[in-house]
Amino acid sequence: MNKIKKTRFPLEEIMLKHIAQNDKKWSEEDLPEMNVLRKQATEYLLEKGFPNTKMEKWRSTDMQPVYEEPLTIYDEAIPYTKKVNEIFQCDVHGFNTKVISLLNGTYYSKENEKLTVSKEGVIIGSLAYAKKEYPAFFKQYYGKIAGEPSDGLKAANTALARDGAFVFIPDNVEVKDALQLIKIMNQPNLAVNIRNLIILGKNAKLTFLHCDDSINHHAGFINTINEVFVGENSSFELYKLQNLNDETALLNQTYIHQERNSNVKAMVISLNGGLIRNEISNDLKGQGAFSNINGLYLMDNQQHIDNQIYVKHSVPDCESNQLFKGVLDQESKAVFNGYIWVAPDAQKTNAFQRNNNILLSDNAFVETQPQLEIYADDVKCSHGATVGQLDDEALFYMRQRGISFSDARMLLMYAFADEVISQISMEGLRLNIEDMVKRRLRGELSICDRCVLHCSNPEQPVIFDIDMSKI
Amino acid sequence: MLLNIKNLHVSIQGKEIIKGLNLSVNKGEIHAIMGPNGTGKSTLAAAITGREGYEITKGEIIYKGQVINDWSPEKRANEGVFMSFQYPIEIPGVSMTNFMRTALNAQREYKKLPPISAGEFLKKMESKKKLVEIHSKLTNRSVNEGFSGGEKKKNEIFQMAMLEPELAILDETDSGLDIDALKVVAKGVNQLKSKENAFIVITHYQRLLDYIVPDFVHVMYNGKIVKSGGKGLALELESQGYEWIKEQFDD
Hints:
The structure holds 2 protein chains of 2 kinds. Chain A is an alpha/beta fold. Chain A has helices at 10-29, 32-48, 64-67, 84-87, 127-133, 135-141, 152-160, 392-400, 405-421, 427-441, and strands at 72-73, 97-103, 106-107, 115-117, 123-126, 165-169, 178-185, 190-200, 205-214, 220-230, 235-243, 248-258, 263-272, 275-284, 290-299, 304-313, 319-328, 333-342, 349-359, 365-374, 379-388. Chain A is built from 10 helices and 21 strands. Chain A is globular. Chain B has 8 helices and 12 strands. Chain B has helices at 41-49, 73-78, 96-110, 118-131, 149-163, 179-192, 231-240, 243-249; strands at residues 3-12, 15-25, 30-34, 54-63, 66-67, 81-84, 91-95, 142-143, 167-171, 198-202, 216-221, 224-229. In chain B, the strands form 3 sheets. Chain B has a 6-stranded mixed sheet with strand order 6-9-10-3-11-12, with helices on both faces. Chain B has a 4-stranded antiparallel sheet with strand order 2-1-4-5. Chain A binds chain B through residues 391-394, 396-405, 407, 411-412, 414-416, 418-419, 463-466, 468-469, 471, and chain B through 49, 51-52, 72-74, 77-78, 82-83, 85, 88-95, 97-99, 101-103, 105-107, 110, 115, 118-119, 122, 140, 142-143, 159, 163.
């Protein structure tokens, strides 16, 4: 028993207690393979506990205050009494999406819509239901893409997550409308673990919108693992929108496995959130795979954002790009850790990484760390990081033309952010996000009971924003 | 009188650069300010346009009858003060079109006019682009980004044409220009010149003044205007250099 950690944080206690109480029930519900993973994860959590700032990967993100919050676990299915849009309105204009939602961590839909299968064979629904209906997928993919526990939060997720979204796109199916997953929290002080599993066969295509939103101002803890398998010649776009209250801690780990000639575009737009940590781990496993991982974060108050990107070039002839940009005001803090690993025989690798930050206040803080580990000799890799202020020369230039100081500042910040936003390929989504970023930069976007894509206040006209090519 | 500068003293970080300068400019006039490097010509332009860090320690800048010492740069701009920058700034991500429309509408808002319509704006852009022989594609790009030296200067004159200032200061607009670009810039200025506006042309060389003919030439030295005259003065400076000025006015 000397391996067992002695002192525990309240949240660890709550989680371990919950596991002990439910272990028998869960063992009956789950597949034997999943029980093995759960047991392994529980042991890891018992032994090592949650990550702390003494660990290199967590050096700059102190989770301790979160671990000490009086949180409770709730993972019972919530009866379907109201339509989602009565709880949370999300009337998306300009582009079509199929919306699915998780309410306080569990799949929220009518009972007969927990799993839907389209005529092409696309399966969308609750992970808890899918593991019973489609065990073969779980045997093949569940926990395989994410891998073994590497820290206590990952272990906690594997040990505790009971539900999430499950998506399967068969070979040769291109899903036209984006799939939008909305995570809503409407109960105070909840700790939830969510597990999403997304599988794309060969020559398949999916655009997935992942919205993290909260509709209250209470503390919360959301620990999500996304496992994504992208088959040969398939194309997957992931857009994560994060707009939560300042009290919420949001932890996301996304594992993406790419087969030959697959194409992945992932983008994380973080507009609000008390503490956000996004880990994206992208394994390029098949030759000719291409990945583009971008992020934009706009933080203020005492918000904290931590982006940890790991790109593994396991085979030759792949390309990866990382572009993360941030604007930090007041006492906010950003951490960026971009890691590129190139295997010994992964020749003709192209891997690029850039992180640019603007600090608007003397008390804002950025820590950026590029890490390249390259074991092949015929590669093109680069990285760059900058931390700076808004360009005074440019501000004066604009003011000399009559543009007010605040508009000039806004225009510069927007121009800075636009390099990321302009990479959103769905026009409707891009326009929506442009609106949100403008509102955020103007200080108008706040947490409200609406979908982050369309807040209750209509967008005000922004005079400088016209696209002359459309006139 | 459009601009009246009285006993102006300007310091940068506590160091006095302009030391008691007087200058009067009326509508319809072109004034050239010449002088050796480091005498405060660009500092004067910065002080008139209200650049931060240029502290007026004494004296007054009176523009259209009002003391503007404490006005913000944007207020001065909206009241008709324009500067063609010696080194135009690149602003990645902000298109020329959006930039110009924002500037124009800021000016219109200041004058309590409604925003310019897209069609009207486009028409205006097209006509002014022709004036400075600017390629269409340049205005689709980010402000000054990837522009050559000559294109940047032409772009300054284009912006001036769009904003139609009452007082335009050209800060070494001729530096780095070849003769063809210089002619284009000069043509632009000459077409914009009217009885209602005035120009202050800051330059080292007589060359530009062959094309933009000044009514007055002032020589600046050591933070002051030490000599004023007609266009003949520029020719004199061209043939004799600045040495005689230095000898005469060195403390």
